[in-house]
Design goal:
The structure is a single chain. The protein has helices spanning 15-28, 40-43, 50-66, 84-93, 98-102, 105-112, 119-122, 124-133, 147-164, 203-211, 230-238, 241-253, 258-273, 277-284, 287-316; strands at 2-8, 33-39, 74-78, 139-141, 172-174. It is mainly α. The strands form two sheets. The protein has a three-stranded parallel β-sheet. Helix 9 (147-164) links the parallel strand 4 (139-141) and strand 5. Helix 8 crosses helix 9 (147-164). The two termini are 38 Å apart. The site of tryptophan has 14 residues, from strand 1 and helix 8.
Length: 323
Amino acid sequence: MRVLSGIQSSGALHLGNYFGAMKQHIELQHENECFYFIANYHALTTIQDAERLQQLTFDVAADYLALGLDPNRVAFFRQTDVPEVTELTWILATVTGKGLLERAHSFKDKTAKGLPVSMGLFCYPLLMAADILIYRSDIVPVGQDQVQHIEMTQDIAGYFNSTYGEVFVRPEPRLNQTPVVPGLDGQKMSKSYGNTIELFGDAGTIKKKIMSIKTDSTPVEAPKDPQRCNVFALLKLLASPEETAEWERRYRAGGMGYGEAKKRLAELYEEKFGRLRAQRAAWAARPDDVEDILRAGGKRARAVAQEVMESVRRACGLSARPR
Ligand code: AMP
Ligand code: TRP
């Protein structure tokens, strides 16, 4: 199976990215042909500061490597190292109705909030479709918020294939067990809501954030519903099944304060991510090696993309005339 996914370099990665997407990216690398990239063209729709974008792109790379992405198994690269995706974006734009893009949730949310919508933001799903189709990807592991974009990609592949013949494969989304990870305030954890718990934050800051997770005002003695608690939702991602069952029992029995669950969550976070800080720091100290990995991954990915683009150009009548 060919597996592909991307993550934007638009802010520090957080538990939502990890449990929604990256965890399965790393698991899937063992038995599939994987292509994972840093979506820095997409990040331009929010980050317009060159130095910051460079830094964030490097940070996403170091985070993935510290979490166990194996660059020998995976083609791990920067979106911009395969500029053919922008060519394909244009071609896909010519077979896609404007109405499809107007129905995208991310675009509708931003317009509803009265935020300015650039053409880049409006066309975001077309670039994402090009990312997926240019590698003939079978499976796209993502969080819930990206499923609509993949369904749009299926539609766009269909428009192209019915116009020009079967060039593209129909990709399928793949979700983790936790397709939506809640943030500190109970909304979806997201860079743009300021409710994140970062993967590599310093211990003190993370602990403070965890202690500030929003809970209801049920008194300590009263029974509590774990299914409606943001702390429990995060705790179960990090605790063993046995420990999770025990917390569930304690919630329902009453006599337990949310503070106790928060303290345990902070400990579990440290056990999992605290341990990886040294690896993260080691990658940060080797920027040239990180660069080499991204370039090598880009070369592998580009070879596939160039071949597919040849078929696309031929199908549309855009090839140079053979002599
Ligand atoms: P982004 O940071 O928007 O590039 O997202 C990268 C990946 O993380 C995508 O597959 C998202 O669906 C996933 N993701 C981001 N936030 C969450 C969340 N709160 N819960 C689950 N998945 C998420
Ligand atoms: N839009 C995705 C996100 O915000 C990132 C992304 C860009 C992506 N291109 C992709 C994800 C292709 C999967 C496949 O999360």
